[in-house]
Design a protein that fits this description.
Aspartate Aminotransferase, domain 2; Aspartate Aminotransferase, domain 1; 2 domains; 5-stranded mixed beta sheet; 12 strands
């Protein structure tokens, strides 16, 4: 543990992992916009050669250390996208012929990778219900090597039994993996909770400004190195300028997420009471199926919610056309409130039957609550629904 790691979360978000002494005294880490670095000519390991694709430039290394410090982990690695982090980590942990136990409600990109691409890599999987640990044993195989869940599911915001996942993985010698994008280290720190690897789409809350694409893998030094070595071959490194933007975004992460937590709860409570709303999915509501579990596990309920208006798809389309402040588009976690119908964006790769089976209705609207005044957001939503 370094001196910085002993400080609070907001302090670590600003200072952890920095280079000492500061380069030319600069308070902000310069952008190392160079693809070539001097080499002394000595023979060493391929993965240690100084080169942007090998994920060992100062901008990349500082970010990895800072992300690790935020989640209480040994090591961190940044990638070119969230899917680069997810797919590379899965390939590295499963190895040749591996089998995965994976939560049955997933982000659409992860679902497509598992269901469509696994076979071409010689990998297999079984879906598991996140609330039924007793049934997980029936899916175990001799080749099962990992179990994968999401902190909060997209887009219904359900909460798996994460303590049971950690215990099950340890009992059976599996690598426990979790996509912590929705919660962020502000609301949940998987490594401290016992998970082996925490994955992020840094495109979302960690950056927080809707202006870059990036991912992260956080965990033990040994496991992150395995992912890094695989990533070096696949080429999913993060460029120095994107690293600079992500480091800048991290400095306000705690402040942003805590406001988004409060705003999302206030908006969810107003939507529940609105006559034009059929149902609202938000773990901060007492009516949510996993509310008590979320209270036990998390420091905040997050800035994501989803709801269905009465009147079906046409009502959802009218609402999306009438709001004034939010942006109608995919992604999440930025300063601007974002709206989307998941069946047309994040889960467009699933068939209508698959969406129905997962409880994702055609009229469902997902909301990423931004940093606008919450009173303004509430008025805007209410006039659009009215």
């Amino acid at each position: 543990m370094t001196k910085i790691d002993r400080f609070g979360l907001q302090t670590r978000a600003i200072h952890a992992g920095r280079i000492e002494p500061r380069i030319e005294g600069a308070a902000v880490l310069p952008i190392f916009q160079s693809s070539v670095f001097e080499h002394a000519g000595e023979r060493g390991d391929y993965h240690d050669v100084r080169y942007p694709r090998l994920n060992n430039l100062p901008n990349q290394l500082v970010l990895g250390r800072r992300l690790a410090a935020l989640e209480g982990a040994e090591s961190g690695l940044v990638t070119a996208s969230g899917m680069a982090a997810i797919s590379t980590a899965l390939l590295a942990m499963l190895g040749e012929g591996g089998h995965l136990l994976v939560q049955d409600q997933l982000y659409g990109g992860t679902h497509s990778f598992v269901t469509h691409d696994f076979r071409s890599f010689g990998l297999s999987f079984d879906f598991i219900a996140p609330d039924d640990p007793a049934a997980w044993r029936t899916k175990l195989r001799p080749t099962t090597r990992a179990i994968y869940v999401e902190t909060l599911t997209n887009p219904l915001l359900r909460v798996a039994d994460h303590r049971a996942v950690v215990a099950f993985a340890r009992e059976h010698g599996l690598v426990s993996m979790i996509d912590n994008t929705f919660a962020t280290p502000v609301n949940f720190r998987p490594i401290e909770a016992g998970f082996d690897l925490s994955l992020h789409s840094c495109t979302k809350y960690l950056n927080g400004h809707n202006d870059l694409v990036a991912g992260a893998v956080i965990g033990s030094a040994e496991q992150v190195l395995r992912v890094k070595n695989r990533l070096d071959h696949l080429g999913g490194s993060l460029d120095p300028h994107a690293c600079y933007l992500l480091e800048r975004g991290l400095k306000t992460l705690v402040l942003r997420v805590r406001q988004q937590n409060a705003s999302a709860l206030a908006l969810a409570e107003r939507l529940v009471a609105h006559r034009a709303v059929k149902c609202v999915n938000y773990p901060g509501l007492a009516s949510h199926a996993n509310h008590l579990r979320a209270r036990e596990l998390f420091d905040g309920f997050g800035g994501m919610l989803s709801f269905e208006p009465r009147g079906g798809v046409e009502a959802a389309r009218r609402f999306l056309g009438r709001v004034e402040l939010p942006v109608n588009g995919p992604s999440l976690g930025g300063a601007e409130t974002l709206l989307t119908r998941p069946v047309t964006t994040s889960h467009a790769g699933l068939t209508p039957e698959e969406c129905t089976a997962l409880g994702i209705g055609q009229a469902l609207v997902r909301v990423s609550v931004g940093l606008e005044d919450v009173a303004d957001l509430i008025r805007d939503f209410e006039q659009a629904l009215d």
